[in-house]
């Protein structure tokens, strides 16, 4: 078996993310990927079984990168406000620096690949976050909510601000840049909504 060419693999990974993020999964093909990378389709099949394997492997790699970034130095036993702010800043820093990763992961999550790719990283992420949330509820720092409701209130504002940041404009046509001040101001409103 041939050894992996790391430069070629990185190019394939980057182009897969770019093509999925830009055109969607339904328009992604192994043939167009090979052409964009300047390699043969046969070369892709040295590294991946098929299109599904390729997408899932790239999604898992990106998911692990994101999870590592947002869990770095995260203590699930810290106070709710401190821990949530750490989550917000870690996510904002990573996703602002990696907009392609953000767009790719969002497309994957909304597809049938989301569950397959997410299963691998879910245990390392969900165990830590579950402990964090349960501790905050026990300490009466967080109102008890179904996980989907809690997640929506806790993180949807952050992700919407990041979407505006990527586009460079907000709801109006006015230029928009996500600043640390606006991030903190929005976070304060979210925390207030989640505290008992």
Structure overview:
- The structure is a single chain.
- This protein is mainly alpha-helical.
- The protein is 74% helix and 0% strand.
- It has helices spanning 6-23, 30-37, 41-47, 51-71, 80-97, 99-109, 113-138, 147-167, 180-194.
- Helix 1 (6-23) packs across helix 6 (99-109), helix 4 crosses helix 5 (80-97) and helix 8 (147-167) runs antiparallel to helix 9 (180-194).
- The protein starts with 5 loop residues before the first helix and ends with a helix.
- The mean pLDDT is 91.
What is the CATH architecture assignment? Orthogonal Bundle
Strand content: under 5%
Q: How many DSSP E strands?
A: 0
How many domains is the backbone divided into? 1
Q: Write the H/E string, N to C.
A: HHHHHHHHH
Please give the radius of gyration in angstroms: 19 Å
Question: CATH superfamily membership, which one?
Answer: Tetracycline Repressor, domain 2
Q: Which structural category fits the helices and strands? A: mainly alpha
The CATH class is identified as: Mainly Alpha
Termini separation comes to 59 Å
CATH topology: Tetracycline Repressor, domain 2
The biggest beta sheet reads:
none
- Total helices: the number is 9
Helix content: over 70%
Low-confidence spans:
none
How much is the average pLDDT? 91
How would the global form be characterised? globular
Protein name: DNA-binding transcriptional regulator, AcrR family
DNA-binding region: 29-48
Organism: Chitinophaga eiseniae
Domain HTH tetR-type: 6-66
């Amino acid at each position: 078996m041939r050894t992996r060419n790391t430069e070629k693999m990185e190019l394939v990974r980057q182009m897969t993310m770019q093509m999925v993020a830009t055109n969607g999964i339904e328009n992604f093909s192994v043939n167009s990927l090979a052409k964009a990378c300047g390699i043969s389709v046969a070369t892709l099949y040295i590294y991946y079984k098929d299109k599904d394997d390729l997408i899932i492997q790239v999604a898992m790699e990106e998911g692990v990168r994101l999870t590592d970034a947002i869990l770095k130095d995260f203590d699930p036993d810290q106070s709710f406000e401190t821990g949530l702010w750490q989550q917000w800043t870690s996510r904002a820093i990573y996703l602002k620096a990696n907009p392609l990763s953000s767009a790719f992961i969002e497309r994957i999550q909304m597809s049938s690949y989301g569950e397959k790719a997410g299963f691998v990283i879910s245990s390392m992420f969900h165990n830590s976050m579950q402990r964090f949330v349960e501790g905050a509820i026990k300490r009466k720092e967080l109102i008890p909510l179904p996980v989907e409701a809690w997640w929506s209130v806790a993180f949807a504002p952050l992700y919407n601000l990041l979407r505006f940041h990527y586009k460079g404009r907000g709801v109006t046509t006015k230029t928009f840049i996500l600043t640390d001040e606006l991030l903190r101001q929005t976070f304060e409103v979210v925390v207030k909504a989640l505290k008992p």
